[in-house]
Amino acid sequence: MAFGNKNEQEAMSEINVTPLVDVMLVLLVVFIVTAPLLTQSVGVNLPKTVAAAPAPQSPVTQVSVDIAGDIYLDKQKMTPETLGQNLAERHTQNPDLTVQFEVDEKVPYGKAAEVLAIAQHAGITKVSLQTRP
Fold it and tell me: Which residues of the chain have a pLDDT value below 70?
């Protein structure tokens, strides 16, 4: 350190920032490594809804799944294969088609996801999920 001035030299007035840069780089590496670990898995409890969205203005087709897992298209019972065919036909007739899904709360999530996947494969892009307050 340059406290004394024996050689008639000026006192050192610059700060050595190398240790500061080293510490900041180490902290940056720590944050880069730990950030993906914090967002890998999150437990979610899905809430029940209170308010409903306004009804869509375009033509609507209703797909229902009852507690037994039976699938209905506009109140007609269908198999998954015929549901896919009917949705594809309706989508070709009207590309602006909106499908409202009404799934019983006791239906396993896998069955609901299967019905949504059938609609996706039929080309349906506008989806509405019905809930009860």
Answer: 1-8, 39-58, 132-133
How far, in Å, are 52, 96, 126 from residue 57 at the CA level?
A: 15, 10, 12
* Contact in structure between 79 and 114 (CB atoms under 8 Å): no
What is the C-alpha separation between 3 and 113, in angstroms, rounded?
74
Domain with 86, as residue range(s), is: 60-129
Residues 6+ apart with CB under 8 A from 112: 65, 101, 103
CATH number at residue 97: 3.30.420.270
Confidence (pLDDT) at 22: 94
Take residue 71 and report the two structure tokens written for it. 């699938």
Counted domains in the chain: 1
User: Which pLDDT score is estimated for 56?
Assistant: 54
| 65 assigned to some structural domain | yes
- Which three-class secondary structure state does DSSP give residue 123? coil
pLDDT at residue 6, rounded to an integer: 58
